[in-house]
């Protein structure tokens, strides 16, 4: 586990930033492949990758600052832009990234739901790769396992500062693996005769379900209300609304697939 890969003079090249950038590039490349395979809008994907990627970084940072770590950042306002230190909430990244994508599709007269269905697998793939950045940076960590198994993080990480030399659940590793499973499920589902919007909605529901249960072993922040964490409350809202939307799309079925060769 290496937070710093190498230095250029006194400037550190952090594993977190490099892997995060890689996740955006590979997600954009996968979205381009899927859109070109579908035969629609692939020329727009590179631009959207830039806009949505930047919006996602801003959203992920602000979500973490205001929902998870405001007690700290309220006293250290100048550190809010320091994304290289870690502290990114994927739910905020998805929200602002999707909003940027929505604005782009409307400005270019692209069918928003149909486009979202095409690129949904690429989004979850990017999230899976991004969790590797959390592992290398020592954030998004789990609670102590209470046994002789788990990850012991280096002394320079936030995980070590919180729990010391205790083995922790590899929450970020589990999430990355579940994201890969969701990626495969979405690829399979999009080959069926689904209604427009259902692939993206399925992505939102499956990820939110996975995140809800993983939060029980996360150890990087506490509970909010009703014994649940903020990410769990958000996930519950998305799951309920998502299931209702999925059913509604099915009743008002306008075929979105398959268009694959």
From TrEMBL:
GO BP: any one term: lipoprotein biosynthetic process
This protein's pathway: Protein modification; lipoprotein biosynthesis (diacylglyceryl transfer)
Lipid bilayer topology: Multi-pass membrane protein
Record EC number: 2.5.1.145
Keyword Cell membrane set for record: yes
GO cellular component: plasma membrane
Pfam families per record: LGT
Family of the protein in this entry: Belongs to the Lgt family.
Protein's UniProt name: Phosphatidylglycerol--prolipoprotein diacylglyceryl transferase
């Amino acid at each position: 586990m290496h937070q710093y890969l190498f230095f250029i003079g006194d400037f550190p090249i952090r594993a977190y930033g490099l892997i995060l950038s890689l996740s955006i590039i590979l997600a954009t490349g996968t979205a381009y492949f899927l859109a070109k395979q579908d035969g629609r809008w692939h020329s727009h994907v590179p631009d959207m990758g830039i806009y949505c990627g930047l919006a996602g970084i801003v959203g992920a940072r602000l979500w973490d600052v205001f929902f998870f770590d405001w007690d700290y950042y309220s006293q250290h306002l100048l550190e809010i832009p320091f994304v290289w230190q870690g502290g990114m909430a994927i739910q905020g990244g998805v929200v602002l990234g999707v909003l940027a994508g929505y604005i782009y599709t409307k400005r270019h007269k692209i069918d928003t739901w149909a486009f979202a269905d095409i690129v949904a697998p690429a989004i979850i793939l990017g999230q899976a790769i991004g969790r590797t950045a959390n592992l290398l940076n020592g954030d998004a960590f789990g609670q102590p396992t209470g046994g002789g198994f788990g990850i012991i993080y280096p002394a320079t990480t936030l995980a070590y500062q919180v729990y010391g030399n205790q083995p922790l659940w590899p929450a970020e590793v589990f999430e990355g693996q579940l994201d890969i499973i969701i990626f495969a499920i979405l690829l399979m589902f999009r080959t069926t005769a689904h209604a427009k919007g259902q692939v993206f909605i399925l992505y939102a529901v499956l990820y939110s379900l996975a995140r809800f249960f993983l939060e029980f072993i996360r150890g990087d922040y506490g509970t909010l209300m009703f014994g649940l964490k903020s990410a769990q409350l958000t996930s519950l809202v998305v799951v309920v609304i998502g299931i209702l939307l999925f059913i509604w799309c099915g009743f008002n079925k306008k075929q979105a697939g398959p268009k694959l060769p």
